[in-house]
Amino acid sequence: MPFRAGAVQAKPLIIGRITRPHGLRGEVKVRLETDFPERFGQLRRVLLVPDRQVGAAREAAVESVRPQGDLILLKLAGVDDLEAARALQGAAVAVPWEERIPLPEGTYYVAEVVGLRVRTESGEALGTVTEVLRTPAHDVYRVEGEGGEVLVPATREVVRAVDPQRGEVVVALPAGLR
């Protein structure tokens, strides 16, 4: 059996997303969602998360990985034809949280930031980080709260502290940002 259900921890780390099948033998194209694309070459197994439903994640053995431009071609055990590959379209490719690559101090995975409460240095609650937007200049935290949406530049000047243990981000909002 190629997939094992129930072997998945609560918080897998998404490293890519299956965009579509490639060829007739079950390969799939994967769009990278990681800053460490080299990790794909060492994978023996991955977790497949359909439509961001972590509870429905299942484990799959990796048969082969090869680059194709800015994508990865991935062949999974038990996915041997076009129809089986099509069934995986849109699924996230993840690894167990414990297998994440350590980041430098002061740097966080998106999964560590999304869901954190955001407050100003004076203690005013702004809401919760719902998304991290990647932009050429810097990341931007989408914060949603009672006052609506605030887009917070994730720069040292604005983000004063990120504390996943306490579940919060402290910011110094420039005038006019709200």
Structural commentary:
With 178 residues, this protein is mostly beta strands. 5% of the residues lie in helices and 44% in strands. The strands form two sheets. It has a six-stranded antiparallel barrel with strand order 2-3-6-5-4-7. The longest helix is centred in the middle third of the chain and has 5 residues. 22% of the residues are buried. The N terminus is likely disordered.
Strand content: 35-45%
The rough form would be described as: elongated
Helix content: under 10%
Taking pLDDT < 50 over at least 5 consecutive residues as the criterion, the unreliable ranges are: 1-9
Structural class: mainly beta
CATH topology of the largest domain: Elongation Factor Tu (Ef-tu), domain 3
Please tell me the CATH architecture of the largest domain by its name.
Beta Barrel
Succession of helices and strands:
EEEEEEHEHEEEEEE
Strand arrangement, largest sheet?
2-3-6-5-4-7
How many distinct domains?
Answer: 2
Distance N to C terminus = 52 Å
Residue-averaged pLDDT, rounded? Answer: 90
CATH class division of the largest domain: Mainly Beta
By DSSP, the count of extended strands is 13
